[in-house]
Amino acid sequence: MDTLSRRRLLQGGLAFAVSLLAPQARACEFFSSNLRIFHPWTRATEAGAAFAVVCMKFDEVLHDDRLIGVETPLARGAEMGGAGAGPRVDFAIRAGAESLLSEAGTHLRLVGLTQAIEVARAYPLKLVFERGGEVNTLLNVDYTSFRFK
Description:
Elements: H1 3-21, E1 29-31, E2 36-43, E3 51-59, E4 65-71, E5 75-81, E6 91-93, E7 99-101, E8 107-113, E9 122-129, E10 133-142
Parallel strand pairs: 2-10
Antiparallel strand pairs: 1-2, 2-3, 3-7, 3-8, 4-6, 4-9, 5-8, 9-10
């Protein structure tokens, strides 16, 4: 075996070993310095819809935090929805716990939609946290509801 072939074999083996050691990130996970955001999603809307409900899960939370802002080219603004929610984006996220934004409870509502939201697309969504700063995510458009495990 010549030197060049041996070198390629060693490089390939090293690359494979490193890939096994690196943590695997999933396409629907996003991280701040303080927490993990899992699968931001919404349903498709018709043109002219008044709003879209956004759901997601927050976990691996190191310190108490708050979701305080949302930006997306899909809407002119955002507000909280669900029981006891107000017009501002203000969602408490507790350390060591899972927090859900879901259709059945407290959720995020995109208001003043600028376009119809299409099935099987992903749109930019920036989340702003009091402690964790800004996190650029992708808002997935699901046909049916997603069940968090």
